[in-house]
Design brief:
Radius of gyration: 29 Å
Largest sheet: 8 strands, mixed
Number of helices: 21
Helix content: 25-40%
Strand content: 15-25%
Number of strands: 21
Distance between the termini: 31 Å
């Protein structure tokens, strides 16, 4: 990520100046405290004053003459340097003039041209037709910027996800079907899977639980009984009315937990919340954990893997109907859930405000507008925010497959100056649906990235603090040794976080994070682990050695594969590292994790005469994959630049490209 403030040197603040007593060595304890306060003062962004910035950008002349540069191209070729920040406008004007006088492109004409005028000053006003770049020196009112960003932030927080807007448009064009779904609990048109893997049809919302279904919930230790009186298809919420007349709304997940007869119809752990109206209880009592997921007792998978006896286990063991359950709940048949795997014609839509709308719940994050993340980052699908969104969507696609029984759909797109197609998973639910889910520890989030330096803001202490025994998913991004984050990073903090929730942990993702054998050993102890994503970790791990830390190995990852029989999603993209090699393939050949449905392995090497050679014994890889032909729904091995697998199960010799090019 390009840094907007590369080379920035902010003027020293008077409050950060050490007193003579401190500099002379007297009052040592007092001096250390003052130093600490001074450093904190420097770290806090200013809310008033004036900033002088020097901007160098293509002039449209010289080597850029005749070039039609796009906005993204211009941003990529533009450099911004903060000259300083000042308390008064006059100080800022003097600093800008001094910067102008020191720049040769203003020599001989600027003083006469501008006279006593304040900035901005632009070297293009000198009409030098040979200059490739123009230099602009300007002053920004920091207070006005802060107020403008606060307004932008408020608008961003109030915005709706792009997908929601599309659904609302569809509902407006189909009012009769929508009204029918609201009144009768909703029939649905499900997606169908074509031979090419693309989906067709439109999925509508419907209620899994009928009106009259009994609910039991404790408030301050006192059980209250209620029943479902209606379902809102658009919001995916059930309205519950209790025997004392109070009402509240519940998600599908909450109803499933609190339905009378369900073994999970108990109060939230340490909740202490009083029963209140829908406006105050909505989304605060239990994690949403997939609000529109189908009840396991009534879900049947269309493309069932062989050896599974026709039963799918997306989240938990199916619940048996009980005598106390409403008879109407099981009387009407529910439509089958069609699971789509592989490439789809659906488009991944950038949701630039997703992270502003859903702040990171782990301490240490800082909210910034997406536009604040560096110059040259572009917009839309070229933006840094969309890059993090795609990483996040992949994590929630894993969660959807492993916990909700969803498929695994993805699309791809091309970007200028990037040779390979960019991958984007399309999950059924994403951060917008799970922002309040307390079973998910998610730091794959824009809030956890320093918008000036790109460093990870997650600390070891905050990671350990956020880990609870009830966690089902841990998603980490950028937890690596880089710059000032050296002091905050401890690989063993990941180990401690895993150990805290090892009995419940089902999905784990590391993206550009440090990965050690100690972390893999901790994962191997998680017998209920269903999903594992490792992306570009080995480059970060090379910076660690000794001090009780062992870089991750093929054997370490193989132990996870062998020790986690419930594994359904295994995504390892490590390029030229040796993380996924013969030992991992041997573990898969020995029928470890028999329920594996997604296998995505990008691990290759270059030889003297060939490139992109898949790591591992090729006969072993072929035998392993062919033996899993009936159970693997999505298999991608060392994808090429078009996102085509270099080995196709059941394919011809032409589709076997394990030996590279």
């Amino acid at each position: 990520m390009s840094s907007e403030t590369s080379g920035k040197s902010i003027a020293a603040n008077d409050s950060a100046t050490m007193s003579s007593e401190e500099t002379s060595g007297k009052g040592e304890g007092k001096g250390e405290a003052s130093n600490e306060k001074a450093e904190k003062a420097k770290a806090l962004p200013r809310t008033s004053g004036y900033r002088v910035t020097r901007i160098e950008s293509p002039s449209g002349r010289g080597c850029y003459y005749g070039q039609d540069l796009s906005h993204d191209d211009m941003e990529a070729l533009t450099t911004r340097i903060v000259v300083g920040e000042y308390d008064t406008l006059q100080e800022a004007i003097e600093a800008a003039r001094s910067e102008r006088d020191g720049e040769c492109r203003f020599d001989g004409w600027a003083e006469e041209h501008y006279g006593d005028d304040p900035p901005p000053y632009c070297s293009g006003d000198g009409e030098n037709m040979d200059e490739d770049e123009d230099v602009t020196i300007r002053i920004d009112d920091i207070g006005e910027e802060v107020r403008a960003k606060e307004k932008e932030m408020a608008v961003a927080r109030a915005s709706e996800p792009p997908g929601k807007k599309q659904k609302q448009q569809q509902q407006q064009t189909q009012p009769q079907q929508q009204e029918q779904a609201k009144t009768n609990g909703g029939s649905t048109t499900v997606e169908s899977k074509s031979s090419s893997g693309a989906s067709s049809g439109t999925k509508k919302n419907y209620a899994n639980y009928a009106n009259g279904t009994k609910i039991s919930k404790d408030f301050d230790g006192i059980p209250f009984v209620g029943e479902i009186i209606s379902y809102d298809c658009e919001a995916k919420l059930y309205k519950i009315r209790y025997t004392d007349g109070d009402e509240e709304e519940m998600t599908n997940y909450e109803v499933k937990r609190r339905r009378v007869g369900s073994p999970k119809a108990v109060a939230s752990k340490g909740s202490g919340m009083k029963k209140d109206t829908a406006s105050s209880t909505k989304g605060k009592d239990a994690p949403s954990n997939g609000e529109d997921q189908l009840d396991a007792s009534s879900t049947k998978e269309k493309d069932t893997p062989s050896g599974s006896n026709g039963e799918d286990k997306p989240g938990e063991a199916p619940e048996k109907p009980t005598a106390s359950s409403s008879s109407s709940e099981t009387s009407a048949p529910k439509p089958d859930k069609i699971r789509t795997f592989g490439p789809t014609t659906e488009e991944s839509i950038p949701d630039e405000n997703m992270f502003v709308r859903n702040p990171c719940r782990v301490e240490g994050g800082v909210q910034c507008l997406p536009s604040c993340y560096g110059t040259g980052a572009g917009s839309g699908k070229s933006s840094f925010a969309y890059c993090i969104q795609r990483l996040s969507d992949r994590n929630y696609a894993m969660r959807g497959l492993c916990l909700d029984g969803d498929g695994a759909k993805y699309t791809s797109f091309s970007r200028k100056n990037i040779n390979t197609r960019c991958l984007a998973f399309i999950p059924e639910t994403n951060l917008n649906d799970h922002a309040a889910d307390e079973t998910i520890l998610d730091t794959c989030h824009l809030d956890m990235v320093n918008n000036n330096t790109g460093e990870c803001l997650l600390t070891a202490d905050n990671l350990i603090k956020a880990a609870t025994p009830d966690l089902e998913c841990i998603f980490l991004n950028g937890y690596q040794r880089e710059g000032r984050s050296n002091e905050r990073i401890d690989p063993n903090a990941i180990v401690k976080a895993i150990q805290t929730c090892k009995d419940n942990l089902k999905c784990f993702a590391l993206t550009e994070c440090v990965l050690t054998d100690e972390i893999l050993a901790a994962l191997a102890s998680c017998k209920n682990l269903r999903g594992l994503t490792l992306y570009m970790t080995m480059y970060m791990t090379e910076r660690w050695s000794g001090n009780g830390v062992t870089p991750a190995t093929d054997a370490g990852l193989a132990s996870v594969i062998s020790s986690c029989p419930e594994l359904r999603w295994l995504y390892v993209e490590e390029d030229r590292s040796g993380l996924f090699d013969d030992e991992c393939w041997t573990a898969l050949f020995n029928r470890s994790c028999p329920n594996l449905e997604l296998l995505w392995v990008d691990s290759w090497k270059n030889t003297d005469c060939r490139r992109f050679v898949t790591r591992g014994s090729h006969p072993l890889i072929r035998s392993t994959l062919e033996a899993r032909a009936s159970s693997l729904k999505l298999c991608m091995i060392t994808p090429d630049k078009h996102l085509k697998s270099r080995y196709v199960i059941g394919g011809s010799t032409e589709t076997d490209r394990l030996s590279g090019v």
